[in-house]
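Example noted here:
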Amino acid sequence: ITNAEISSAYGEKVLGIIVGLEKVEKINTTRSKLQSENFIKLILSQADDVRVVLILLSSKLNKLRNIKNLSEEEQKNLAEELESLYAPLAHRLGLYQIKTEMEEMSMKYLHNDIYKTIAKQLAEKKAARDKYIESFIQPLKELLESKGIPPFEIKGRPKSIHSIWNKLQKGKV
């Protein structure tokens, strides 16, 4: 289908998104893995419309969620690409749940033993961690209520497995 046919059938905006996707998909990611920041800048400069980047991230996330359908080598390549390029891109755009999902799944396929070890330890200490988070939240909640602060919600969450692993690596533990 030609650009003119797309434009007449769907409009210039859709054509712009498709052209943007074509530009972005031509970027060679094999050499970019070690230069995440440059890759992000390149993607953002090539995509004139942020929807192009959102479609790209959605496509990668879909591929990740169906990773079991890929060969072992394809799984490893996708996991490396997501960990080094697309998770930081999602982070840059403030898409933290997507970033975390990409990092967690990447780690599961690239560093499975470490992933399982950390996951097991987190599961063993879940009750204590939940109790600690609640003990931290309760005084804040009471203070805000006593000050007459409008309705609010305080949430706590544990660090992700990938985040724990990064912290351990940085601390050389």
In short: The two ends are 55 Å apart (CA to CA). Residues 72-92 form the longest helix (21 residues).
